[in-house]
Design goal:
Distance between the termini: 47 Å
Bound molecules: adenosine-5'-diphosphate, magnesium ion
Strand order of the largest sheet: 13-12-9-10-11-14-19-17
Number of strands: 20
CATH architecture of the largest domain: 2-Layer Sandwich
Number of domains: 4
CATH topology of the largest domain: D-amino Acid Aminotransferase, Chain A, domain 1
Structural class: alpha+beta
């Protein structure tokens, strides 16, 4: 096993990785950019190195500097987390060249899976269905021809995308021309994109796999990640609700077959979209630890970071498929610093922060009261995970935890999560990837927000009136609690009044 690991990441995922390293008696090195000075991962690690960002962009993306720090401080391995350089074959290769183990698949695997078009080709050659689509697009005329073949609406995707970034639906020739005009402005040439048939409605299902690099591939079940906004996951659950057993078997088999075909090593996630007839179409492989990995840990009892470390250090996978047992169900809500209505980032300082706890509840976070939230990094504040005997039980716990979760100073997605968790269609597989953006969920949220706001103003006004009556003679200038011309919303731990909205 490794002696000292550099964690090339920040936030909740860096803290989560350090936690497992500590359990295994491995020393850790944190890296941080200046604004992250004093943040949780820096405090948790045995050593911390500040990244010099002068003129170099983001330190967390600076391969030379990260490898330099790792070598200098004697790290024998680097864990990249998710996002940043986690899928970058050049980073993996620079680590290996410096004699440092990259905790993830080898550079050649990263290079082949990070290209969605070539990865789809490998899947097809193994008999795994993929979404009909093009190779990299070289110009508008070609794009229009393919769009006419496949039909509008069509999906434009970056060949090396991630986190839902850059994906867009295009409805007609006019929109296609507009998009192509805009491409140079965002600094991406047209060859960086491909087109895909837009399947609607779809659910997103994925399989967690682990491979030892010597032919052994196991799965740790599937995850349903249909609840998204802007093609990025908001709520994930496992097992997938109301999926026919035969479909589930087929899904798991596709994933294992693909990982074998790729001679994959370490853990990885195989993502699919599923149409209403339970046909699966492979979309991509995420060759790393996934944001939503805790729900798999909750039902399998396997620490996925530990598994990554054991595979990378050459210990392999001691578990056989028959020894993987699932118990119960788990749901994760991504608590983002976002306005729940327009889903735009919410920045500012967290003035109050109370996180839920209790049986079956796990919170992964690196922020606390006083933390400043900027738009510089991704908006994830916390991952709230609830376990239950079944999905219904997990949902009940989640709703209670969401009620207890109390944040002030910035807006969060908590009110949105409550509405989705209360939607009866959620556990019946009745929602699709566009339900949050286009369905009635948004309308419900808007209605709730305005009702709660109106109510809180009424309550505020009533309290103010009573207090004024009581205090009128003693304090003639008392103006109740109407600061800044707006009543301060009353709030309770039951979350009935959302200050954060
Ligand atoms: P997961 O599939 O693990 O849920 P996401 O697709 O939500 O992962 O991505 C996780 C995070 O990693 C995102 O919030 C985003 O910040 C970051 N990320 C992933 N891929 C990329 C990429 N290619 N470019 C930039 N950021 C990325
Ligand atoms: P990323 O690498 O950015 O995560 P993905 O290929 O995984 O990109 O797609 C992200 C999301 O976009 C999927 O989870 C799904 O909601 C949607 N999506 C992807 N491909 C299709 C498709 N062909 N039809 C409909 N929706 C799709
Ligand atoms: Mg994806």
């Amino acid at each position: 096993m490794f002696k000292r690991i550099l964690v090339a990441n920040r936030g909740e995922i860096a803290a989560r990785i350090i936690r497992t390293c500590r359990l295994l008696g491995i020393e850790t090195i944190a890296v941080y950019s200046e604004p992250d000075n004093g943040s949780l991962h820096v405090r948790m690690a045995d050593k911390a190195a500040r990244l010099n960002t002068a003129g170099k962009g983001d330190g967390y993306l600076d391969i030379d500097q990260l490898v330099g720090v790792a070598s200098k401080l004697g790290a024998d391995a680097v864990h990249p987390g998710y996002g940043f350089l986690s899928e970058d074959w050049k980073f993996a290769s620079a680590c290996e060249r410096a004699g440092i183990r990259f905790i993830g698949p080898p550079p050649r695997t990263l290079a082949s899976v990070s290209n969605k078009v070539s990865c789809k080709g490998i899947a097809q050659s193994r008999g795994i269905p993929t979404v009909e689509g093009s190779g990299p697009i070289t110009g508008l005329r070609q794009a229009l021809r393919i769009a006419h073949e496949l039909g509008y609406p069509i999906l434009l995707k970056p060949v090396r995308g991630g986190g839902g970034r850059g994906i867009r639906t295009i409805n007609d020739d006019g929109e296609m021309s507009e998009v192509f005009k805009a491409l140079p402005r965002v600094g991406i040439g047209p060859s960086g994109f491909f087109l895909e048939r837009y399947i609607s409605p779809v659910r997103h299902l994925e399989v967690q796999t682990a491979s030892d690099g010597h032919g052994k591939v196991i799965h740790l079940g599937e995850r349903e990640c249909t609840i998204q906004r802007r093609y990025q996951k908001l709520i994930e659950m496992t097992p997938a609700p109301l999926l026919r057993e035969a479909s589930r078997e087929r899904l798991l088999d596709y994933a294992i077959r693909l990982m074998k075909g790729l001679s994959y090593e370490n853990i990885g996630t195989v993502e699919f979209v599923m149409d209403t007839d339970e046909n699966f179409y492979f979309t991509e492989v995420n060759p790393r630890l996934q944001v939503e990995h805790p729900i798999t840990e909750a039902i399998s009892g396997v620490d996925l970071v530990e598994l990554q470390l054991r595979i990378a250090s050459g210990e392999g996978i001691v578990l056989d498929q028959e020894e993987v047992h699932f118990k119960g169900a788990a749901i994760e809500c991504r608590i983002n610093a976002e306005d729940p209505v327009d889903l735009l980032p919410s920045i500012g300082r967290i003035t109050e922060w109370h996180i839920p706890t209790g049986m079956g509840i796990r919170v992964e976070t690196a922020v606390s009261r006083g933390s400043s939230i900027t738009s510089h990094y991704d908006p994830l504040l916390a991952k709230l995970v609830a376990w239950g005997e079944n999905l219904k039980g997990a949902r009940t716990r989640m709703l209670q935890a969401l009620d207890e979760f109390y944040v002030r100073g910035i807006k969060t997605t908590i009110p949105l999560h409550k509405i989705i968790l209360n939607d009866r269609r959620l556990l019946r597989g009745g929602l699709n990837t566009m339900s949050v953006e286009n369905g009635d969920i948004r309308q419900k949220l808007v209605d709730t927000v305005f009702r709660e706001r109106a109510l809180s103003v009424q309550v505020g006004a009533a309290i103010a009136a009573t207090m004024m009556e009581m205090d009128l003679r003693a304090k003639p200038n008392y103006t109740g609690n109407e600061h800044n011309g707006r009543a301060e919303p009353a709030h309770s731990m039951s979350g009935r009044f959302y200050e954060a909205i």
